[in-house]
Amino acid sequence: MKIGVLTGGGDCPGLNAVIRAVVKTAINDYDMSVTGFKDGFEGVILNNYINLDRDSVSGILSLGGTILGTSNQADPFNFPIKQADGYTYLDRSSELMTNFERLGLDALIVIGGDGTMAAAGGLGELGLNIIGVPKTIDNDLYGTDQTFGFDSAVVTATDAVDKIHTTAQSHHRVMIIEVMGRYAGWLGLASGVAGGADIILVPEIPYNLEVVCEKVKERNRQGKNFSIVVIGEGATAEGGDMVVSRMIDTSPDAVRLGGISNQLAAQIEGLTELETRVTILGHLVRGGSPTPFDRLLGTHFGCEAIHLAARKEFGRLVVLKNNKFDSIPLEETAGKTRKVPLDSPLLSAAKSLGISLGVSDEKLKQMAEEANTKAAANEPAAEEVGA
């Protein structure tokens, strides 16, 4: 068999571990050949590829990023073409299919998040033999208990929170750390709990500004003259909207979130008269060497993807479920986002530690009961609906 592989969407630690596992498993177990496409689906459309062998993947296990390059602006069904007055979008999926067949490939392994898997599912419907591998620092890909890249991002974000602690304590300030995550709060919640935050604000729980400020003032009354707030970029105040830093020209209807922390800082400072500062981690959490956990998870995912290809089980996504590696149909992930459930043990642990989640305990309990009622009625739960 001849196998193609690409990395799509945003980069994250662990991508090279998957590529390495794909190539080595394909050669060692099945005597397959592997073609690596550059910059995501763009590489297939534009015939930009390299042959991958053992030498190609030697020494890349610990490297961050991806040796193949990636793109989150190369949707084959909405491929951006720059014009004098902006961008137009073309369906170039037929070109992709033609190039794939011309190269004599038997299957394509795509490593990416929700956008990449949506495109992969569409290509599968056109007849492409495709297998997905779940990647994202946001941990929000529906169908798998964890994506690789998440653990590395949590380590980086937690390290930043640790460092912010010392300056917050020295200057007696409220310090707000904004992390990525888009519409899901996994990264903010995990790094906030691990970093000892006093307040954690996530997209799943619209926060009440008065509750947030009261937590800050309560700490001051107790003699604790600083507070640490970790907030996800997609968090919102009750009745408010997500803060959009800008629209993305090369992707129709796509937005870039960011800046909610600046808005919140001004409000806290105005209502509490306490000096408040902001640190937006941004792409810092995407970079660096993958943690051992992500190297292992990515390696397992890459091996499983090749095993699926060898068995000709196409149109599937490799997943980790209940601590076992399995696969599900790609269409099961379509249009869904894996959000933090309101009965999450980590949310419960945060409450037990005295961390404010930006709402009263009564309000959070009410929200959880409403979510459970919807689930009992077989309605889509909040964590199952794409933003």
Describe this structure in words.
- With 387 residues, the protein is an alpha/beta fold.
- It folds into two domains: 179 residues, Rossmann fold (3-Layer(aba) Sandwich); 180 residues, 3-Layer(aba) Sandwich (Rossmann fold), CATH 3.40.50.
- The protein has a seven-stranded mixed β-sheet with strand order 3-2-1-6-7-14-15, with helices on both faces. It has a four-stranded parallel β-sheet with strand order 9-10-8-13, with helices on both faces. Strands 4-5 form a two-stranded antiparallel ribbon.
- Helix 4 links the parallel strand 6 and strand 7.
In what order do the strands lie side by side in the largest sheet? 3-2-1-6-7-14-15
The class by helix and strand makeup works out as alpha/beta
Question: Given the structure, what is the number of helices?
Answer: 11
- The structural domain count equals 2
The Rg value, from CA coordinates, equals: 22 Å
Percent range for helical residues? 25-40%
Features:
alpha/beta; elongated; Rossmann fold; four-stranded parallel beta sheet; seven-stranded mixed beta sheet
Task: Give a quick precis of the structure.
The chain is an alpha/beta fold. It has helices at residues 15-30, 41-45, 93-102, 114-125, 150-171, 186-194, 209-221, 260-272, 292-310, 345-352, 361-376; strands at residues 2-7, 33-37, 49-52, 79-83, 86-90, 107-112, 130-134, 174-179, 199-201, 227-232, 244-247, 255-257, 276-280, 316-321, 324-329. The longest helix is centred in the middle third of the chain and has 22 residues, at 150-171.
